[in-house]
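Hey L., structure's done. Input below.
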Amino acid sequence: MTPFECVPNFSEGRDAERIERIVAPAREVPGVTVLDVERNADHNRCVISLVGEGEALLDAVFRMMKVATELIDLNVQRGEHPRMGATDVVPFVPLGTSTMPDAVRLAEKLGARVAKELGIPVYLYASAAKRPERNDLAKVREGQFEGLRTAIATDPARAPDFGEPKLHPTAGAVAIGARPVLIAYNAYLTTPDVAIAKRIAKAVRARDGGLPEVKALGFEIRERNRAQVSMNLTDFHVTSIHRALEAVRREAQRFGVAVEESEIVGLVPEDALFDAAEYYLQLHSFDRSAVLERKVRSIATSGPGHESIASFAARLAARTPTPGGGSAAGVVAALASALGEMVLAYSIDPAKPAEDLVAASAVLNEGRHRFLELADEDAASYDAVRQSKKARKERPNDPAAQEGYLKAVRGAAEVPLETARRAVELAKRLDSVRDRTRAALASDLVTSLALFRAAAEGALANVAINLEDLKAAGQPTEGLESEVTRLRPSP
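Output:
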């Protein structure tokens, strides 16, 4: 499965029955799950979070848009949030092994269908934009429904990417695009003065010299008698939730007000919340793999021992730090063990099993399970190194941070070293009984031995990288280097 998230925004946030009618068609599409429905009466807007495979997700969103086109009339719709369409914006977000080019293709395909079948002009934005200025959604939506009605027909720069240069009479236009995960984050001030919220928004947003990857507007939320700074964090790795909040707080103090509370609209990556927790709790060397739910989840679903080869290969191919070469070496060694077990299973006489062949099979079976554990441990050890590097950078004079880093690097060397050691030992064990295996399985035995050699060589390469880091830190590495030399094949 190549999953995507899609987060269509509809210009209706007050009528719960209407919103459910818009969402209902998506619930009926196989392979698509409605994750969340958020609505805001003051903004008069709802945000729907869906996840699914590409074609099914595209179909679900189109069905929702068709209903929204029938129900929402922008000639009478009003709200605090800027809008140009009944379906205002539809971003596709790649997840897992999905890629941004894949998401762009979905946006383009949906855009062509919407223009043709619904008669709604479509602007491609963000990563799907065909014009540089349309990377910014605010530029695409400039003038809103009322202003765009004239501009789309008279200004060539405002011509849509799909459809005729005229608005749908009631449903307006829509922006369809592809983007990374976005966090919609709002801060409520201890004042109803929207002018203050707007000045704060201007100070913190990127386009006016504020925080990078932050878009912000100021709104009056009448039902709460409060002003709101509404933000989109377009890359939380660049500007995190807590840094955005602290910036709003600092600006608010200039006007004698404070942040009363904040909220997240829609879904949020768990790492964004962990970032905030580490900041406010001052957890300078926190290992996120120690979170109970993550640990249980990793045991239940994420390791190579609990997923298909195709799934693991897809994770390996993704542009993520883990799994990497050390994990791949562990999985290859597990395959070598399994193939060796198969050779021995056919070579052992059930009527008179040879004890040494049975013992060799048992050792290979134990090794197969251990190699899969080592594949998981290699990924975890690399994550530990990354976290400890971050802690050492933040606290360069803290001995505990330095000690944690050295411990993590040594662990990252010892895990692949165990993989290499076991691979070499099991290869020798299997080779020692080669002449007593069935001749018809000779190619399988050769393949098993070749896989063991590849696993050992790859694992030792991972050891070598970490040894360089230990040497650079002035740590003794003689014992590890001696073991590496012993395990390397003679030239």
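The chain has a mean pLDDT of 90. The chain has 15 helices and eleven strands.

-- N.
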